[in-house]
From TrEMBL:
Boundaries of every 2Fe-2S ferredoxin-type domain copy: 2-79
Record-level Gene Ontology MF annotations: 2 iron, 2 sulfur cluster binding; iron ion binding; oxidoreductase activity
Name assigned to this protein: Aldehyde oxidoreductase
Domain of life: Bacteria
SMART domains hit by this protein: Ald_Xan_dh_C
NCBIfam families with a match to the protein in the record: pterin_aldehy (NF045668)
PANTHER family: XANTHINE DEHYDROGENASE, XANTHINE DEHYDROGENASE SUBUNIT D-RELATED
Keyword terms: Iron, Metal-binding, Oxidoreductase
Family: Belongs to the xanthine dehydrogenase family.
Amino acid sequence: MKRISVNVNGVERWVVADPKRSLADVLREQMMLTGCKVCCADGQCGSCTVLIDGKPIRACVTPMEKLAAGAKIVTIEGIGTPENLHPLQIAWMAHGSAQCGVCSPGFIMSAKALLDKTLTPTREEVRAWFHRNRNLCRCTGYKPLIDSVMDAAAIMRGDKTIYDVMPKAKEDGSILGTEYIRPSAVAKVTGTWDFGADVALKMPAGTLRLALVQAEVSHALIKNIDTAEAEKMVGVERIITWKDVGGKNAITGLITFPTNKGDGWDRPILCKEKIFQFGDAIAIVAADTEEHARAAAKKVKVEVEVLPAYMSGFAALAPDAMEIHPGVPNAYYEQGVVKGADTKPLMTSAAAMVDITTYCSRQPHLHLEPDCGEAFVDDDGVLTILSKSIGVHLHHAMICPGLGIPPEKLRLIQNPTGGTFGYKFSPTMEALLGVAALVTKKPVSLVYDQYQNITYTGKRSPANINIRLACDKNGKLTAMETDWWLDHGPYSEFGDLVTLRQAQFTGAGYHLENIRGKGRTVATNHAWGSAFRAYGSPQSFLASEIAIDMLAEKMGEDPFEFRYKNLYNETSTTPTGQKPEVLVLPKLFDMIRPKYQEAKKRCAEFNKAHSDKKRGVGVSLGIYGCGLDGPDSSEARVEMTPSGFIVHSGWEDHGQGADLSAQTMAHEVLRAAGVKPEEIGLVMADTFGPNSGPAGGSRSNVFSGNAIRVAAEMMLNAMKKPGGGYRTYKEMVAENIPLSYDGKWVAAACTDCSPETAQGNPFPIYMYEVFLPEVEVDLETGETKVVKFTTSVDVGTIINKATVDGQIYGGLAQGIGLALTEDFEDLELHTNLKDCGIPYPKDVPDDIEILYLETPRDLGPFGAAGVGEAPLTAPHPAILNAINNACGVRVFRVPALPEVIRMGLEAKAGKSATKSELQHN
Ligand code: MCN
Ligand code: FES
Ligand code: FES
């Protein structure tokens, strides 16, 4: 320990600290300057960036002892306050740049250092600066961040005013379709938005800190758990094992289909007899500090008998593979698709047919904020769990029987959340927190480090799809056959649905009336499969959007026009036999066609001038449904108070902007009574409030948006005076009129899909997008980058323009990662953000163009569909198609790593790789 003098935000202070501790830890834990966020603790993400003597420094890798005497430290708290914001903070809000907001303080500090040097940077200089300073963002695709810096610089130069930059309501007061800022924006850009790790620091004295004892192998029998030595370690209060869990000690997967061969109780809260995957929780240590808890966790001895680990669908499907869950076959769910006529004769008589196998990877979510949460038993004896849950009511049902408490004694509330992209559709640590709080009878907190966050949360389920696609002599699609499996890891939750998604989306978008296929969900010992943005569809479109490209090639036709003539028409149905709710794909293709032609010309000119690098353009389409399968519903409440209105909604916010959307939906109705947006407060994502369903499946804008609209309409009706005008709060009270209204919206016309045929009407509304990337391939190294991305999109009426732009930019950036770099396969290598292949600023093009078509949907709130998942449905096959267009190499799996492309180039040049090597390497 040492008494160290520091100058923080202009104030000279003394702090007693361990000189080896990081500046980030001292700022956060000792000075409570929690605007300095720690996401990786490894210098990779820049979320902890502060200024030291004007330079951007990553505080997580700066030990206190490295601080020079008299060094001046500036944190986000030192550059602006909610009442007096820095231009960068204003511009960040104005461009919707703080989506989840966990990266915002770090980016703003980094940008400040740049603008302190120059007020006239170019966009490229800003991008290079962020890239060099390792500033990562997973939500925004970076473009809005660059826009923000450019605007902040303009304000600081005096070329623009704050008024110019800040979005405004429309003249009639409506904020629908504007770029109105989020209610959470000020807190996010000033660093006062408390994420779960900040909440943990601010828990009361006596809160126990938890650490997990986790499996270090992927498949094993547990012979003994010895806690004796660990119990004696300093600070330890209690070591908790399966014996301490009061209920079934399992998380129920709420399996959807009775044809599922398991019972859905396959995921233990704490492992008893068996380890199913690396990282599985075996015991929890509760101690006075996190350091003590982690040290003791290392001393728990787990004796195991290692079993063969099945790390892929290929391995788990092998005839001699043992059952991972004894009594349940590894292929535990089968899904068929049967539409139209028998496809066999159509395949035989086809003018052309493509038969390929594609493999979509175990894409990691790479949300920056590591998983975290707290729990306590409140004064009424209710176990209250705070976490990143994006399905508080869903998770309540999934964990309650495992904990063994009555449902009314369990409450889940979502903490401000630093991105999930779907991994939090599964409960992660909720049950662990719950068990610990129940056993110790004290408040507890658990904060994963980035290693745990990556290795012990769910991932996208890899899919291996064989597709055969046929057309007649006119190039019209006649039939499709598919055969697929999904590697869903060891736990069955949502495994049947993701398998069904292949039936719903493979071949979607085209007039394709004859389909036969069969798929299966396979248990493996790799990471458990969880929801991931666009859930299930990236696997499907990888297959069908490469196949159709190849079919066009076989027919000697342009891939854009070949698609165009096969798009859904007035007589078409989706692969599940549903009539599309709007016919927008031909218009989206018409809109983007001139861009396609320009791109082809641009690429040809580049290729003429370069022999070492080649450029190409690719096309694909993507579609996704809004909703959970079948008759889904959402509830909301609007309450009138003396000072305004409160929307109560379960719409969880990952970072996508649930707060602003809930406010906008209510305001668009209530503004008739002269209500201002700022008079509408929010109480969100709490199981003691209305059940709005999970924020997944891009369902919330439609379902929760409609439920809020309905509740607001009921309120407005109640406020209406017989002679015109609206009642005030006082008048409502005086007339004894209820002050609270519950709205509900049900997609009543939707039906489930059958496991045998997949036929049904699963979604009320779909989103549609066309992808047009341009890539550059280095012919020597195989390195590929996306240099420009154009997309045309129809997500119905736009509720907030900055939100929708941000969703699309961010989704495309994740699509670039999926296509080229991201993976979670190697448990030794893929253990941090960088090695999992997360795109840094310069890995995503600044040149992204979005063309909007706004076709109002009859069932959408104010005509809106959803948007979150659309941009990640099919950007990656378009990129792979563009690679082929650039250099003639077909890649059938993602990520298309340079070595795979290089192998393809060598094969083309007459060297060794075969088609099957390219499909499976
Ligand atoms: N929206 C709009 N106008 C439309 C459609 C949508 O303004 N026509 C807005 C909505 O009001 C909402 C956002 O766009 O703020 C996304 O709406 P929707 O598609 O309904 O999605 P959900 O609110 O249900 O959010 C979930 C969705 C999914 S499934 C994932 S995964 C996802 C995503 O949104 N994860 C995200 N976007 C994310 N964005 C961030 N920053 N972080 C995540 O983890
Ligand atoms: Fe410091 Fe990531 S760089 S937390
Ligand atoms: Fe950048 Fe979420 S806003 S990580």
